[in-house]
Amino acid sequence: MSDSKMTIKKRSGLGRGLGALLENPADSSQAQDKNEQASVGLMNEISVDTIETNPYQPRTHFDQDALEELAESIRTQGIIQPITVRQLSANKFQLISGERRLQASKLAGLASIPAYVRTANDQQMLEMALIENIQRENLNAIEIALSYQRLITECSLKQEELGDRVGKKRSTVNNYLRLLKLPPEIQAAIRDNYISMGHARAIVNVENIDTQLSIFKSIIADELSVRRVEEIVRDLATFGLPSDEKKQTPKTQASVEIQNIQSRLATHFGTKVQVKSADNNKGEIKIPFTSADDLNRILELLNFV
Predict the structure, then answer these.
(1) Contacts within 8 Å (CB) and 24+ apart, 193-199
(2) d(CA 46, CA 224)
(3) Angle between helix 226-238 and 209-222 (nearest 10)
(4) Is residue 53 within 8 Å of 84, Cβ to Cβ?
(5) Domain ranges of the chain
(6) Which residues are catalytic?
(7) Where in the numbering of this chain does the ParB-like N-terminal domain appear (predicted)?
(8) What's the predicted TM-score (pTM) here?
(9) In the chain, how long is the greatest CA-to-CA distance?
């Protein structure tokens, strides 16, 4: 058989570290013929044209510049870490992990790529893809959170089991999952690196969605540090700013516009701000302070000193 017709070529003398972790003793007995049986659990050189993408891929965005840099590295150094695939038929494979490496290899013009081959059902595919990507790829915080959530819901894992699988404490897993409670606008900002995980962890402690969005807008507009956001959240909790409509009666409930202004001012000044408005469009704004230093801080924010 000529080289052009071969899609799998055995590689010998290569490291077995990752292969030993991925190899499943039951895989060989499940292969449908001798050729498949010989390839399962081993490292092989596989034609990139025979590999289809992973439908369970947790990463939704790949930076094109980063892919080009990886492609250039592959042209120079080759593939350092093999991808992982499952065999669908004698001449067809499906990616389990290594999407960036596969895409970059195609950009680099490679006709084949080193890969570990193993058998897996759909749920195993999902679990392996999610866990390996979480551990090895530079996923953003929202992608990690969504991956954790999928492992819990689709693979029926408890948080304790999930922590063991990904090598993280339960508290760490929970911190990521809590990000999914934030409004979509804030989640998108985390995904796109406009705000950090630290900013998000502080915001998520605020119950009121309007206040969350107000703090988020202040972070963007004023380039607030994580420490400053944490201070704002603590001050809001200390001064007891209403966190939901249950704390407001119809008689005292301000209009939506006044509520929004009040929340934004409270976020800006880091203290409870009271806005009163009468029917004749007159009213007052009260900004309390607790010390001389606190007063000076507020005056600086007003550009008064």
Answers:
(1) 193/140, 194/220, 195/219, 195/220, 196/226, 197/141, 198/226, 198/229, 199/224, 199/226, 199/229
(2) 50
(3) 150
(4) no
(5) 3-136, 140-181, 182-301
(6) 99
(7) 44-134
(8) 0.49
(9) 91
